[in-house]
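Record 1 of the preview.
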Amino acid sequence: MNASDLTFTSSDFLRLLDARGLTGSWCWVFATNTQVWSPGLFHLLGLQPHLSSPGYDLLRGMLHPEDRDMIETAAQVLQGDLRRERVVRVIRPDGTMRILSANSEVRYAPDGRPRSAMGTFLDVTDRESLRLTQTARQRQYLALVEQSRTLVFSHRIGWETQAYPSFSALLAPDDEELAADNLAAIVKEQRETTREIRLHALAHGLVHQGTTQFRMAGGIREPFRSVIVPVRNLAGEIVEWAGVTGPAGQSSGQAVSDGVRQGLEQMVRGRHLRAARGLLDWSMSALAEASGLSLSTVRRLEEDAEAQADRSRHKAVAALRGAGIRFLSLDDGTLAVARF
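->
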């Protein structure tokens, strides 16, 4: 066996893709009016090869009525008028729809006359459906942003901050100014203090929330409240920061999200647990019994010797909450302990 017997040609790769049912191809020789479809194209169109004869008019007729004008007529193809790329919808005989990416080209004789045409179709239904869904969700989100003037944003470690830009239209600074300083919307006299508090929270993995005056379009100042929380992986490492900013006049009685609650728990240290026990007049044994933890685990928690993301912290905090203790993140980034 020589080396050439072990190589794969482009036709071999095309047959392999065709057999997966995700792509199909066609060709049309004008002189003999010979039209050939690959098995994959029959599959994409939902047709049976032994029941249907390849034909350009059949192919064009299966397109969604709104997309039919995107594909040239048979007469146009014979004249060499064939666009290379487009995305179209096909309606199968069973009524299902697939979205296909079409790529075509015309071959010419030496005298310049069109001699044949060929093309491929790639099934991009999943990709296009996801894109349409994301587009629809973004429209919905932007409508909510415009109405509620609330912005949700995130920053993944090593990635750029992700936020919908339409919120900036509500603010006095333009996109260029905001790109240079993400706190440019905050009034000048509060900007640096806010920056210091946020940098401290970011450096120590703390939840940060606070109310600041925003410079709104039209020269108006308006108070906005921001909450920024760390998002951790199972190992307790911060992989992302998530935040929400909205008018300070909104009700504060909203339910606390799991992300905010988890972020607050990460701020709880031994001194907070001791303060909470003091408010309840509990001993370490009482906290151990209420949380289902061992006395030694409670002691390690209060000595800050337990891993930051350990489940035992969650159990201890949950037991204290159940007894009426609340852990509150103040605007300066510190954590307060109170009994209700």
